[in-house]
C-alpha cells in the first residue's frame, strides 16, 4: 500500500532473438499449468503410528481421504504392510520429533513446489474436509501462515503460541520454503517431548511467526471431544462449526463423527436449497413472464423444448418387473441391475415425499406400480412419471385405496472431470487387415489409401495382412494362389518404399472368427503393441490414427469407433452426379452402429482379457465363433470401452458377405448392417415410388 504501489497491468513483451547467437529450440512444458506457475491448492499429511496404522488411519482414509485432492500417511515404522488404498511413507524411526522432522523435510522435497497449502493432522483427528478446503480458498497465499488451535508453551513466553497437533494445523507454501533451511538447526538445538511443540518453537525461534487461530477474517474452529461423548447428541454451535475434532480414540467413534457431520452438511444443503427456491419464487413474480415462468422443480432448468418432431425425447415405459425399451432392441426384457435399483429408489422417494406432505392426516403405503415412464433430458436430468396404486390410512385407522400420479426429477448433479492417463500421438500403430476371397476387389483401394495417407506422410504406422484361406483354396495354393494378386501389390509397395516391410500371415479356416484370428496376430507382436483392427473398406487417414492413439490407453481404455457408411449411390443419386459438400456428406450415409470390425487396443490388454476368457470357456473353442473382440473386452477386461462415432473413418458402399457359419447374432448384425446401409428412408421411398410409376406405365 502507498504511493509506490506497483500497478499490475499486463504488457506485451516483444520477442527478440540475438542474430549473433545460435538458435536453440525452446522446450515447452507438458502442461500449460506448469509453464504459468500454477500450483495445486491443498496437500494433506496424516501422522500415524504402528499401533494405529490399521485402525484409525484406515478410518481416516475411508471417511475423509477421498474429499482431499492429495493425502499421504507418514509413519516411523519401517517395512509396514500398507492397507489397501493408502499411500504410506515410512521413515524408519518412530521417535516423535524425528518423525516430524523427516515428514517436513519430505513434504518440502517432494511437494514444496506443487502446492500452496499444507495441512498436517494426526490419525486420531476428525477433520471436516470440505470445511478445510473452503478455508484455504479464502486465505491469501502471499503471507506466511501458521494457522491452527493456538496453545501456550509450558513455562514459556506468554506471547508465543504453537499449534496443537491433535487439532491439525495449516502451513502456507511461503512459510514451508523459509522453514526448510532451519530444520537441521531445530533438530539439533530444540528439545521437546511433543512434536507439535517442537515444530512451533522452530517456527517461532527462526522465523518469528506464532500460531494464530484467526487470520484474514477466517476462524479455525475446533472442538475437544469429551470422554464417552455421543456425537449424535452434540448440537451446540461450537461442535457444528468445528473444522477439526480431537481426540478420537477408536474407529467406531470416527465413523459416528463422520455420519453426524455428514448429516449436518446435508441439512445445511437442504436448507440452502429451500432458501434459494423461496428467493426464486419471490423474484419470478417480478419478471416479464410472471409466475408462469416458474419451472418445476424450482431452480432446475426447464424441460427441453423440441423444435421439430425429430428432436422429441421419447419416454421409456416400465413396470416393477419389466422394461419395454431394451438395449438390444427387443420389445420387452427383465428389469435388473442398475435399472431395477433406479426404479426401486424412485418409488421409495415418491412414497417418502407423499408421506412427508400429508402426514399426520394420511399415511400412504404402496400396493402396486401401475405404470412407469422415464426419459433422460440432457438439459436437466432423468424425469419420471409414476402411476401408483396406494393405500391411504387416516389418523382414525380408516383405509382407502386410490391411484395417484406423481412426477419426479433426478437432476444432473455436479459434473466431474474423470482423470485419464497421459498419452501422446507419437505411438506406433500396428494395422491388422483380415482378408478373405470376397474382399479381393477392395484391397487395391485400401493399399492405395494406406500408401498415400501413411507411407507418403511418414506416419508411424505399420501394416500386417491376414490371408484367410478356405480349406479348398489352401489345398490348391501351390497351383492357384487366390491371394497372388494381393501379394504382388504388396511387393510393388515394398519396392516403392524401400524402408517399408508389409508382412502377411496365412490362416486356413472355414469360420473366420475374429477372436481366433486376433489370437494368432497377438502372439506374433510385443505386448506393448497398439493394434488397429481394420476392415478392407476402411480408408486410413492421419486424423483417425491420431484419435486411435489418443483414445486407446494401456490398462485403462479400448476404442471401438463407429465408422461412417456411405449409402448405395445407385439408390441415392439414381444416375445423377454425386454431391461433394459437407452437408451432403452427412446426408448420404449413416454411422453404422451394427459394425464392430474396427478397434484400437493394446496387445497387453487383449492378452489379459483373453486369459480370463480361456479360463471361463476351458476347451470349448466353438464358443469363440459367436464372439468378437468387442465381446472379449466387454465381459473379461474391466477396462473402459469407448464407443463413439468417428467422422474421420469413412467407408464406401459395398455389399458385405455375411458368413452363415458364424453365430446367429453375428450373422443377423451383418445383415442389418447391409440393409440399413442401402439408403435412407426418403431415398428408399423415392426408389419405390419411381418403380411403381414405371410399372404403372
UniProtKB/TrEMBL annotation:
Keyword Repeat: no
Annotated Pfam families: CHGN
Keywords of the record: Glycoprotein, Golgi apparatus, Membrane, Signal-anchor, Transferase, Transmembrane, Transmembrane helix
GO MF terms, alphabetically ordered: glucuronosyl-N-acetylgalactosaminyl-proteoglycan 4-beta-N-acetylgalactosaminyltransferase activity; N-acetylgalactosaminyl-proteoglycan 3-beta-glucuronosyltransferase activity
Annotated membrane topology: Single-pass type II membrane protein
A GO cellular component annotation in the UniProt record: Golgi cisterna membrane
UniProt entry tagged with the keyword Transferase: yes
Gene3D superfamilies hit by this protein: 3.90.550.50
Places the protein is found: Golgi apparatus, Golgi stack membrane
Main EC class the enzyme belongs to: transferase
EC number: 2.4.1.-
TM region positions: none
UniProt family annotation: Belongs to the chondroitin N-acetylgalactosaminyltransferase family.
Protein name per UniProt: Hexosyltransferase
Species lineage: Eukaryota, Metazoa, Chordata, Craniata, Vertebrata
Amino acid at each position: 500500500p502507498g504511493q509506490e504501489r506497483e500497478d499490475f497491468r499486463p504488457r506485451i513483451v516483444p520477442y527478440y532473438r540475438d542474430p549473433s547467437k545460435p538458435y536453440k529450440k525452446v522446450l515447452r512444458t507438458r502442461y500449460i499449468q506448469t509453464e504459468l506457475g500454477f500450483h495445486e491448492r491443498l496437500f494433506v499429511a496424516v501422522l500415524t503410528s504402528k499401533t494405529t496404522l490399521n485402525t484409525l488411519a484406515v478410518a481416516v482414509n475411508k471417511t475423509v481421504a477421498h474429499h482431499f485432492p492429495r493425502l499421504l500417511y507418514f509413519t516411523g515404522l519401517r517395512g509396514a504392510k500398507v492397507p489397501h488404498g493408502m499411500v504410506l511413507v515410512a521413515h524408519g524411526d518412530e521417535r516423535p520429533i524425528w518423525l516430524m522432522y523427516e515428514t517436513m523435510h519430505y513434504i518440502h522435497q517432494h511437494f514444496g513446489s506443487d502446492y500452496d497449502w499444507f495441512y498436517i493432522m494426526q490419525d486420531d483427528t476428525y477433520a471436516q474436509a470440505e470445511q478445510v478446503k473452503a478455508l484455504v480458498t479464502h486465505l491469501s497465499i502471499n503471507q506466511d501462515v501458521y494457522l491452527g488451535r493456538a496453545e501456550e508453551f509450558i513455562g514459556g513466553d506468554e506471547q508465543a503460541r504453537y499449534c496443537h497437533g491433535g487439532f491439525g494445523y495449516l502451513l502456507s507454501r511461503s512459510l514451508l520454503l523459509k522453514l526448510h533451511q532451519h530444520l537441521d538447526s531445530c533438530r539439533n538445538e530444540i528439545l521437546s517431548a511433543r512434536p507439535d511443540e517442537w515444530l512451533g518453537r522452530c517456527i517461532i525461534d527462526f522465523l518469528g511467526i506464532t500460531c494464530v487461530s484467526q487470520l484474514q477474517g477466517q476462524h479455525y474452529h475446533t472442538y475437544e471431544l469429551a470422554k464417552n461423548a455421543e456425537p449424535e447428541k452434540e448440537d451446540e454451535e461450537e461442535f457444528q462449526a468445528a473444522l477439526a475434532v480431537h481426540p478420537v480414540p477408536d474407529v467406531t467413534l470416527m465413523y459416528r463423527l463422520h455420519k453426524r457431520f455428514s448429516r449436518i452438511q446435508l441439512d445445511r444443503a437442504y436448507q440452502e436449497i429451500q432458501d434459494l427456491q423461496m428467493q426464486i419464487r419471490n423474484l419470478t413474480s417480478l419478471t416479464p413472464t410472471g409466475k408462469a415462468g416458474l419451472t418445476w422443480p424450482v431452480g432446475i432448468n426447464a424441460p427441453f423444448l423440441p423444435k421439430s418432431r425429430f428432436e422429441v425425447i421419447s419416454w421409456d415405459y416400465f413396470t416393477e418387473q419389466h422394461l419395454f425399451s431394451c438395449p438390444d432392441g427387443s420389445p420387452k426384457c427383465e428389469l435388473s441391475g442398475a435399472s431395477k435399483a433406479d426404479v426401486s429408489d424412485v418409488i421409495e422417494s415418491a412414497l417418502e415425499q407423499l408421506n412427508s406432505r400429508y402426514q399426520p392426516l394420511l399415511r400412504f403405503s404402496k400396493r402396486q406400480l401401475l405404470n412407469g415412464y422415464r426419459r433422460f433430458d440432457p438439459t436437466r436430468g432423468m424425469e419420471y412419471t409414476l402411476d401408483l396404486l396406494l393405500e391411504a390410512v387416516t389418523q382414525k385407522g380408516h383405509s382407502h385405496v386410490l391411484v395417484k400420479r406423481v412426477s419426479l426429477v433426478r437432476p444432473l448433479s455436479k459434473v466431474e472431470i474423470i482423470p485419464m492417463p497421459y498419452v501422446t500421438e507419437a505411438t506406433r500403430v500396428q494395422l491388422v487387415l483380415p482378408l478373405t476371397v470376397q474382399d479381393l476387389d477392395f484391397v487395391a483401394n485400401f493399399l492405395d489409401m494406406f500408401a498415400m495417407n501413411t507411407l507418403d506422410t511418414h506416419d508411424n504406422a505399420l501394416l500386417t495382412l491376414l490371408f484367410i484361406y478356405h480349406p479348398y483354396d489352401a489345398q490348391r495354393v501351390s497351383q492357384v494362389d487366390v491371394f497372388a494378386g494381393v501379394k504382388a501389390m504388396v511387393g510393388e509397395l515394398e519396392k516403392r518404399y524401400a524402408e517399408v516391410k508389409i508382412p502377411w500371415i496365412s490362416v486356413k479356416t472355414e469360420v473366420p472368427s475374429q477372436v481366433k484370428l486376433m489370437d494368432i496376430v497377438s502372439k506374433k507382436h510385443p505386448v506393448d503393441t497398439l493394434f488397429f483392427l481394420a476392415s478392407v473398406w476402411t480408408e486410413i487417414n492421419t486424423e483417425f490414427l491420431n484419435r486411435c492413439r489418443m483414445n486407446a490407453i494401456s490398462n485403462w481404455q479400448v476404442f471401438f469407433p463407429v465408422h461412417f457408411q456411405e449409402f448405395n449411390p445407385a439408390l441415392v443419386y439414381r444416375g445423377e452426379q454425386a454431391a461433394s459438400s459437407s452437408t451432403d456428406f452427412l446426408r448420404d450415409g449413416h454411422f453404422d452402429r451394427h459394425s464392430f470390425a474396427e478397434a484400437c487396443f493394446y496387445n497387453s490388454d487383449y492378452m489379459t482379457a483373453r486369459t480370463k476368457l480361456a479360463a471361463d470357456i476351458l476347451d470349448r473353442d466353438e464358443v469363440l465363433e459367436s464372439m468378437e473382440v468387442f465381446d472379449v473386452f466387454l465381459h473379461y477386461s474391466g477396462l473402459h470401452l469407448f464407443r463413439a462415432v468417428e467422422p474421420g473413418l469413412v467407408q464406401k458402399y459395398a455389399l458385405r458377405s455375411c458368413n452363415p457359419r458364424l453365430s446367429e447374432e453375428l450373422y443377423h448384425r451383418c445383415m442389418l448392417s447391409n440393409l440399413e446401409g442401402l439408403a435412407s428412408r426418403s431415398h428408399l421411398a423415392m426408389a419405390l415410388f419411381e418403380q411403381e410409376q414405371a410399372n404403372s406405365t
